[in-house]
């Protein structure tokens, strides 16, 4: 074989039409759970993700990754969670995909090349840079105060993979590198209350003086550490400072709702409201799980004329202000 022919064959081996994939350590995108009320934080898994956990790659890979290729991510600190303004903690778990199949253990290197995760992301295909996402899910049971909860993670990436494929799947070069980036995770907890409000029934009577006083209570379970007030509006038919029930024939039966066992009207403005510190059971700030009880009594005014026989109704709104 002549010398020029040998040179041509060598050139063919060195120009295989392979493409190169290159990765780099880049700044992350924060992961935010958004604003969630305290009840949902305690009872329901919340999800979030970052579209960029600190590793970005571009290029083209002509075959799937092999057992010799690795994309390790080590997330620290080894223990922790989202910490709020009063020191409460919301625990959460990190995942390599948008499922619960691949949890990431803090402080332990997780290989994204395994289980086909990198391949499924298409991280090394095409010229457009692509980043590795990480997914997060809160753990239920966190009884916490309202406020901003945050944690800053360190994501250390280390990669070693075949970045160029030659004739016969011969690897012509490997991309090897590492880098560490900070990742901020946040969740804002808002105040919330779970409210139990039984209906008020005066039953029936032939005259207004025959209606008995109704003694009942409302129960509230509000966000841990929250100070709040509870108000009752005037209903749909108020007149002369008195609540009124109404019949289908547009007749009225005046009544009212009073604080505890007293004669002080329970209203919706200023001092007419009731503070959490004024609860009849468990007074003080909310506990998140325990109930605070507010007693009341409801009476039909006896200084009014007895209206025609009918069914009389009204609707009163209870509101909570923090």
Automatic annotation (TrEMBL):
<dbReference type="InterPro" id="IPR007893">
    <property type="entry name" value="Spore_coat_U/FanG"/>
</dbReference>
<dbReference type="Pfam" id="PF05229">
    <property type="entry name" value="SCPU"/>
</dbReference>
<protein>
    <submittedName>
        <fullName>Spore coat U domain-containing protein</fullName>
    </submittedName>
</protein>
<dbReference type="InterPro" id="IPR053167">
    <property type="entry name" value="Spore_coat_component"/>
</dbReference>
<feature type="domain" description="Spore coat protein U/FanG">
    <location>
        <begin position="181"/>
        <end position="317"/>
    </location>
</feature>
<feature type="domain" description="Spore coat protein U/FanG">
    <location>
        <begin position="19"/>
        <end position="155"/>
    </location>
</feature>
<feature type="signal peptide">
    <location>
        <begin position="1"/>
        <end position="21"/>
    </location>
</feature>
<keyword id="KW-0732">Signal</keyword>
């Amino acid at each position: 074989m002549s010398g020029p022919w040998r040179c041509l064959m060598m050139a063919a081996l060195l120009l295989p039409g392979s493409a190169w994939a290159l990765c780099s350590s880049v700044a992350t995108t924060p992961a935010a759970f958004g604003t969630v009320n305290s009840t949902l934080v305690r009872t329901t898994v919340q999800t979030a993700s970052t579209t960029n956990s600190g590793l970005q790659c571009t290029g083209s890979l002509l075959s799937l990754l092999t057992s010799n290729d690795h994309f390790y991510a080590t997330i620290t600190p080894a223990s922790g969670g989202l910490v709020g303004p009063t020191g409460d903690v919301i625990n959460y778990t990190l995942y390599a995909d948008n499922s619960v199949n691949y949890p990431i253990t803090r402080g332990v290197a997780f290989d994204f090349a395994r289980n086909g995760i990198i391949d499924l992301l298409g991280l090394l295909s095409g010229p457009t840079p692509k980043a590795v996402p990480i997914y997060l899910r809160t753990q239920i049971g966190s009884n916490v105060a309202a406020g901003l909860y945050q944690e800053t993670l360190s994501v250390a990436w280390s990669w070693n993979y075949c970045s160029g494929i030659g004739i016969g799947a011969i690897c012509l070069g490997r991309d090897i590198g590492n880098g560490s980036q900070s990742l901020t995770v946040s969740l804002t907890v808002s105040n919330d209350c779970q409210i139990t409000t039984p209906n008020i029934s005066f039953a029936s009577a032939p005259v207004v003086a025959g209606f008995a006083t109704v003694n009942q209570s409302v129960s509230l379970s509000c966000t841990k550490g929250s100070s709040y007030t509870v108000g009752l509006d005037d209903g749909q038919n108020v007149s002369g400072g008195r609540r009124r029930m109404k019949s289908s024939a547009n007749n009225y039966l005046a009544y009212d709702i009073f604080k505890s066992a007293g004669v002080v009207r329970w209203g919706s403005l200023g001092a007419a409201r009731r503070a959490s510190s004024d609860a009849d059971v468990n007074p003080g700030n909310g506990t998140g799980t325990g109930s605070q009880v507010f007693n009341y009594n409801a009476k039909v005014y006896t200084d009014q004329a007895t209206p025609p026989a009918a069914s009389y109704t009204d609707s009163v709104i209870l509101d909570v202000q923090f």
